[in-house]
Amino acid sequence: HVQLVESGGGSVQAGGSLRLSCVASGFSYVNYCMAWFRQAPGKEREGVAVIDSDGSTSYADSMKGRFTASRDNAKNTVYLQMNSLKSEDSALYYCAAGQVKYIHWGQGTQVTVS
Questions:
Q1: Structure confidence by residue, pLDDT tens digits, 35-66
Q2: What does the pLDDT read at residue 9?
Q3: CB under 8 Å to 8, separation ≥6 — which residues?
Q4: What is the SS3 assignment for the chain?
Q5: How far apart are alpha carbons 75 and 14 in whole angstroms?
Q6: Which of 39, 38, 73, 77 is CA-nearest to residue 59?
Q7: How far is CA 35 from the centre of its chain?
Q8: Is residue 33 exposed (0-12), middle (13-18) or buried (19+ Cβ within 10 Å)?
Q9: What is the rounded distance in angstroms from the CA atom of residue 92 to the CA atom of residue 78?
Q10: How far apart are CA 26 and CA 58, in angstroms?
Q11: CB atoms < 10 A from the CB of 93, how many?
């Protein structure tokens, strides 16, 4: 069955880095657009980064220059490298997969920046 499993979250000091991973299974990952979203307590979910099936990327303005999304199709894995982390980056980070809209979602990995 379809699974997206995120990992790599944790607690880090402001200015630090984390790399999130999301392993996909149960669907034709290479044909899907992948995205990272996040949601902080009391806030709406927001888009972080998108990486299309051809590897092209786009980012929310507040993440540009600090976050980098990549994918390894041989490993069915998408990554989010996060540098220069700020306290406002603290959230539950999810990966999602879709072609027209995002239909597969992971459970999320928590990132806490203090």
A1: 999 999 999 999 999 999 999 999 999 999 99
A2: 97
A3: 18, 19, 20, 21, 109
A4: CCEEEEECCEEECCCCCEEEEEEEECCCHHHCEEEEEEECCCCCCEEEEEECCCCCEEECHHHCCCEEEEEECCCCEEEEEECCCCHHHCEEEEEEEECCCEEEECCCEEEEEC
A5: 30
A6: 38
A7: 6
A8: middle
A9: 16
A10: 25
A11: 24
At 18 the pLDDT is 98
pLDDT tens figures, 68-107 = 999 999 999 999 999 999 999 999 999 999 988 888 999 9
